[in-house]
Amino acid sequence: MRFVTRRAGLVGLAAAAGTLASASLIRKPRAADPAGAVRAADGEELEDMSAMKLFDPPVTLPSLPFTAADGSRHTIAEFRGHGMVLNLWATWCRPCVAEMPSLARLSRALAPDDIAVMAISTDHGGIPAVRRFFTDHDITALPILVDADGRIGEALNVRGIPTTLVIDREGRERGRLEGAADWASPQALATVRRLARA
């Protein structure tokens, strides 16, 4: 598993939700190595769903504040009633960047199911850093969401990024995966649908 642990000065990571959105990302081709691991175009290994930790019973989440591109503050509680995939990432994190194309494809596939795929950045540069990244990578439909303070990561005891949570319609965490994953796989799609609809 590849993911970046918190470093000095980076206090916590984040999760958030919002309206359904998808990303217009240029799809990087994936290739399986001889051992069968899926790799992104830059060589980063992508996990499959067997790496996901499941919660039974589900875990009730605390209030999780985040900031949208217009500077408005929101909490995850505002989006109860929708399934959510919350990805915690940063622009400087290579494994995070590697999984972005598959997250975008997951978002497009899940939009009809009322399951939002939301990525929230922990960059200290906040909204401007994410806006630059989205422009440079041609991401046009994924909302800009940030937790530059790192409060969400602390509240969720997140150990590093990328970390992805699957949250059901009642706002409860059903699964967590640490590391970059192949979110575009049929297995990922089925797993997220099953957990988020509960």
Automatic annotation (TrEMBL):
<dbReference type="GO" id="GO:0016491">
    <property type="term" value="F:oxidoreductase activity"/>
</dbReference>
<keyword id="KW-0732">Signal</keyword>
<dbReference type="Pfam" id="PF08534">
    <property type="entry name" value="Redoxin"/>
</dbReference>
<feature type="signal peptide">
    <location>
        <begin position="1"/>
        <end position="23"/>
    </location>
</feature>
<protein>
    <submittedName>
        <fullName>Thiol:disulfide interchange protein/alkyl hydroperoxide reductase</fullName>
    </submittedName>
</protein>
<feature type="domain" description="Thioredoxin">
    <location>
        <begin position="55"/>
        <end position="198"/>
    </location>
</feature>
<dbReference type="InterPro" id="IPR036249">
    <property type="entry name" value="Thioredoxin-like_sf"/>
</dbReference>
<dbReference type="InterPro" id="IPR050553">
    <property type="entry name" value="Thioredoxin_ResA/DsbE_sf"/>
</dbReference>
<dbReference type="InterPro" id="IPR013740">
    <property type="entry name" value="Redoxin"/>
</dbReference>
<dbReference type="InterPro" id="IPR013766">
    <property type="entry name" value="Thioredoxin_domain"/>
</dbReference>
<dbReference type="InterPro" id="IPR006311">
    <property type="entry name" value="TAT_signal"/>
</dbReference>
